Amino acid sequence: MQDGERLSLEQIQAFLEASDEIRFNASDRLELYEWMERTLVEQKYAGLGRASKGLVRRYVAKMTGLSRAQVTRLIGQYRARGEVKATVVEERVQDIAILMRVCYGEDSQVVIRADETAGALQRLRWALERTNVRVQSEGVAVNARAAATRS
Fold this sequence. Notes:
- The protein is mainly alpha-helical and about 150 residues long.
- The chain folds into two domains: about 5-80, no CATH class; about 90-150.
- It has helices at about 10-20, 30-40, 50-65, 70-80, 90-105, 110-150.
- Helix 1 packs across helix 3, helix 3 crosses helix 4 (about 70-80) and helix 5 runs antiparallel to helix 6 (about 110-150).
- The radius of gyration is 20 Å and the shape is flat.
- The N and C termini lie far apart (about 55 Å).
- About 10% of the residues are buried.
């Protein structure tokens, strides 16, 4: 669909009620995430009411073929970071773990190591996010102290 991210909320509602087989055809995951980000920006997702947000979520899920959980995760990422982006390294490690299960069986050492690597990568990402949140909150506190000092 050309410029599907520019539909009005009424057009999205009509589309959801009328269509069954139409889907956004992305060449890769990055293109799909870019389309989703453009859609959220164009619809001014953060400023929408609850019902309108649900409408946009259903539209994105229908157009992309992503599950409700995936759409929720990506919208959460958009709200937190202002963008939707693929965590390529994580996805590749998970793909490798799946491939190793298929090739070597569930209990092989290769699969266990791939799972451990994926877990370590996830823990690292969480630690970086906590550090980033802490740094941002400290920056706000420093700015508030500086403003109070100037007053």
